[in-house]
Amino acid sequence: MNRLAHPRLLGGLPHRVSSVWVLVLALAASAPIPAAAQQAQPAPSVDTLAKRIDQMESEIKALKEQLATAQTQAQDAAAAASVAEPTYPSLNFHGFGDTQYEYTSDQKNFPNRFWLGELDFYVSAQIAPNTSIISENVLSADPSTNNWSFEAERIFIDYKFNPYFNVVAGRFHTEIGYYNTAFHHGTWFEMDTHRPWFLEFEDSGGILPVHMVGVSVDGEIPSGSANLHYWFQVGNGRSYDSALTPQNPTQAEHVDNGRKAVNIALTSKPSWAPGFQFGAGFYHQDVSPQTAVPGTGVEGFDVVPSVSLATEDETIGNVSVIYNGRDGWTFLNEAFLIGHRPTGDTTHHTFAAYSEASKKLGAWTPYARFTYVNSPASDPVYNLIQTTGLRYGPTFGLRYDFTDYACLKLQYDLTYESSSEQEQAPTNDVTFQVAFTF
Amino acid sequence: MRHAPALLACLALFAGSCAAEDLAIVVAKSVPIDNLSSEELGKIFRCEQTEAPDHTKLQIFTREKGCPERETMLRVVYQMPEAAYNRFFMHLVFTGQLTAAPRVVASGAALKSLTAGNPGVVSYLRQSQVDDTVKVVKIDGMAPGDPKYPLKLAP
Q: Is B87 in CB contact (< 8 Å) with chain A?
C-alpha cells in the first residue's frame, strides 16, 4: 500500500493533522540531506514523526498551563496586596439628577413647566481605617429668579470608634424620623417625585429642621434580638428669622441665639420581625423668631432689619413604623407632633404625618402616599414662615426602572388646602420625572 | 427498549454532573468565626455587622455580576435581584453607613488567596475550590455537603 494513501493520513486523521503531515513531509523532501546521512540513517517513519508531534503538543499544553497558573498567582498576589495595604484617601464619587415636566390645575400661580431638579455631587472618602468624609454638594436653580446656586448640603467627618460609638461632626441630616436620613438629595432613591411636603428641605418650604450643623453620636445598643440603635445630636438647629428663612434657614454660621438644638432618636430592627424598623425621637430647640421689617433690606441678604419675637420652645416628637420587605413591599409610616410655646404662652401644636406603600413588580413599582399637615393659625413660628393651615391629600404614581441607574416616574397629586381665612379649591398635579444616578 | 439500560445510565451520569454544588462561606484561619446563623450571615453580608467577636473589622468581597456564586448569594442571603443589590449598597454609601460597596474579585482563586491572607475578609467559594488555606464557616451548624446546607449553587 502507498504510504501517503494510508487511511490514517488521508482519511482517518483529522484535517489539521493531515496538513501537518503534508507540511512535514514537504519540508523533509526539500531539505538538503547529507549523502552520508542518507546512507547511514533511514528516514523516520510516519509513526515516529506522529509520536514526536504528539509529544511536542503535550509539552506546549503543559507550558501553557504553567503560564496560566503563574499569571493567576500574580493576579492573586496583586489583589491580596491591594487589600493588605489599602491606600488613603480612597474616593467614591456619585452624581444624582432629575428633570421633570409638571402640570398643575393652579395655572394662575404655577404655570405648567419643564424644570430641572437638583444636580447632586456626592463624594465619600475613606481617609483612614476608621475615618471617612462625606460631602454632598447640590447645584440647583431658584424658581423665582432662575439663578443657579451651589450649596454644601452635607459635609461631615465620621470617626468610628466601634459599632457602639460613632462620632460625626459637620453638617448632616438630622435624625428626625425615618425619611429624612433614608433619603437625601438624590430623588433617584426616592419612590415619589418629591418628599412629603413637611419633610421638604428648609429652603423649599419644609417645616422641620432637616439639616443640622453640629455633632452627632450614634451606635448600636447591645439589646439582643431588638437590635437597638441610638443617636444623640447637638447643633445650631433651624433659624426662624424671616430674612433667612426663604434662602438659608439652616444655621451654618449665623445663629439666632447661643442655645443649641438637641435631638435624640432610637430605632429597632427586631430579628423577630424581618424587614420592620420601629423608631422614635425627640428634638428640642430654643428658637428666636425674627420678622423682617416690610419694605426694607435686600432680598437674599441677612442684613434685613428685623424685629425679634419672644423666644420659644420648639419641641418635635416623632414615631415611625417602616417595612422594607424582601417580598418587594415597602410601607413607610411616620407621624410628627411639633410644639411651639412662646415664653408665658401655651403650646401651639402642629400635627404632620404620611403613609406610603409601594410594591416592586420587576422594573415597575406602583406606589401611593397620603400626606397630612395641620398647623394652627395661632402658631407664631409657622405663621412667620407662612406654613399654617390644613393641607392633605393622596398621591398615586408609577415608577419604571428602565436601567439599573435611571428611572421614570409618573405621579398624580390631589391636594386640599385650607386656612382659617379661606378654603381653596383642591389642586391636581401631574408630574413626569426622569431621575438618574451616575 | 434494548437501549433502555444505556439511556438510564446516561441520564444518571447527567444528573450526577448537574447535582448542586455547595457554596462555602470562608474566612482566614485566624478569624474566630466558626459558625453563623442565617441571620448573622445576612447581617455580615449586608454590612450591618462589621466586626468579628475579637473586634477584627470585617470586609466583604464578592464575585462579579452574572457569576453563579454571586447569583446564589443574591438569591439565598440578600434575597434581592442584582439591580436591588446595587441600589441597596449605593443607598448605604449615600447615607454614610459605608464608604464603598463590597469589592468585586473576578476569580475564585483570587478570592481564596485574599481571604487566606487578610484576617477580616469574608467571602464565598465553591466547595470544590476550598482548601486548607482558609476556614469554612458553618451556617446554622451545617457545613457544605450537608443535605440541608442552605447555600446550594443553582444547577
A: yes
In a domain, B65, yes or no: yes
Domain of B123 in residue numbering reads as: 20-139
Q: Which residues pair with A316 in a beta bridge?
A: A283, A338
What secondary structure letter does DSSP report for A386?
T
B41 domain-assigned: yes
Q: Chain B 32-61, CB below 8 Å of chain A: which residues? A: 39, 49-51, 55, 57, 59, 61
pLDDT at B32 over 70: yes
What are the pLDDT digits (tens) for A425-438? 899 999 999 999 99
**The complex's ipTM?**
0.72
Contact at CB, B121 and A90, closer than 8 angstroms: no
**Cis geometry, peptide bond prior to residue A34 (ω within 30 degrees of 0):** no
Where on the phi/psi map is residue B56: left (φ > 0), alpha (ψ -120 to 50), or beta?
Answer: beta
| Contact across the interface for A189 and B91, Cβ inside 8 Å | yes
Of the candidates A147, A89, A143, A150, the residue with the CA atom closest to the CA atom of residue A119: A150
CB contact under 8 A, A72 and B118: no
List the domain boundaries for chain A: 3-80, 92-437
Taking Cα atoms as reference points, which of A64, A85, A62, A80 lies closest to residue B133? A80
- H or E segment to which residue A321 belongs: strand A312-324
Separation in Å, CA of A256 to nearest CA in chain B: 29
| CATH number of the CATH domain containing B26 | 3.40.190.10
Query: Are the beta carbons of B95 and A184 separated by less than 8 Å?
Result: yes
* Chain B residue numbers touching A401 (CB-CB < 8 A): 83
pLDDT at A113 over 80: yes
Report pLDDT digits (tens) over B69-98.
Answer: 999 999 999 988 888 898 899 888 888 788
The length of chain A is 438
B96 within a domain of the structure (yes/no): yes
A residues 57-86 lying closer than 8 A (beta carbon) to B: 72, 75-77, 79-80, 83-84
Residue B86 in domain: yes
Angle formed at CA A148 by CA A236 and CA A241, multiple of 5 degrees: 30
Residue among B94, B107, B117 whose CB faces A122 most closely = B94
- Taking the C-alpha atoms of residue B33 and residue B25, their distance in angstroms, rounded to an integer, is 11
Count of domains observed in chain B: 1
**pTM exceeding 0.90:** no
Q: Flag if B113 and A79 touch (Cβ within 8 Å).
A: yes
- Closest chain B C-alpha to A300 CA, distance in angstroms: 30
Give residue-wise pLDDT tens across range A17-32. 455 554 455 455 555 5
Q: Which residue of A has its CA nearest to B89?
A: A189
**CB–CB contact A72 B110 (8 Å):** yes
CATH tag, A92-437? 2.40.160.10
